[in-house]
Amino acid sequence: MSLSIHGVGMTSQRTRDRLIKILRQQNIKDEKVLSVLAAMPRHLFVDEALASRAYENISLPIGHGQTISQPYMVAKMTELLIDGEEINRVLEVGTGSGYQTAILSKLVGQVFSVERIQPLLNNARKKFRQLKLNNVLTRYSDGGWGWPEKAPFDAIIVTAAPEELPMSLLEQLIDGGRLIIPMGKRGEQELLFFKRVGNKFHKKTLEKVSFVPLLKGRSG
Ligand code: SAH
């Protein structure tokens, strides 16, 4: 591993702090979330050739047609998911680079993360080991079915967009639990927030978003 965790030049703390300033301007308010983003070496989650762009507020390619989410979107979804509360068990669907997983691991008790592309998952696992994130458990699987053996979860975050709501995810929430999920066809997606109250689900539609599609089955 030739890139250091602390970083220099375009990956230095000063560059990271500039990103945090932009996130504040975009109305991210949770100080805990902002400080975890400021400390997380995002440049380790992208290819070395892209490391100098890691602290720009953009999504970047991670191979296999997938992307590492935009820092603003990671901050926004994390803020919504935590909502100032103590959260214990979180399911993430779409590990990808592992960046969102790593952010969550610093803020909640345990993260369960599912990915359908094996090489991406292997890469992400290496990062979790390198950063000593011991509260992350991952699985190579189609996360549209959730992770029934580990359910129920306090919160579920989905980082790829289905066209229809996967009901199995709602079923795997505790009472009071919440689901954050982008949904819709490419170019017409919206970020949705569901809160479980008994066997009812309260839905809120948030902003327009752009995510890769949630696909069925495992690749390869
Ligand atoms: N949170 C990630 C986002 C990666 S993009 C990051 O910041 O890096 C979304 C990821 O969801 C991709 O890696 C894609 O392979 C994965 N994905 C798509 N459909 C899936 C499914 N049904 N189950 C699990 N993962 C899925």
How does this structure look, described?
The protein is α/β, with parallel strands linked by helices. It has a domain at 61-208: 3-Layer(aba) Sandwich (Rossmann fold). The chain is 27% helix and 27% strand. The chain contains six helices and nine strands. It has helices at 13-25, 31-39, 71-82, 99-105, 118-130, 167-171, and strands at 60-63, 66-68, 89-93, 110-115, 136-140, 153-158, 173-183, 189-197, 200-209. The strands form two sheets. Strands 5-4-3-6-7-8-9 form a seven-stranded mixed beta sheet. The chain has a two-stranded antiparallel ribbon with strand order 1-2. Strand 3 (89-93), helix 4 (99-105) and strand 4 form a beta-alpha-beta unit. Helix 1 runs antiparallel to helix 2 (31-39). The longest helix is centred in the first third of the chain and has 13 residues, at 13-25. S-adenosyl-L-homocysteine (SAH) is lined by residues 66-69, 93-94, 96-97, 99-100, 114-117, 120, 142-144, 159-160, 212, 214-215.
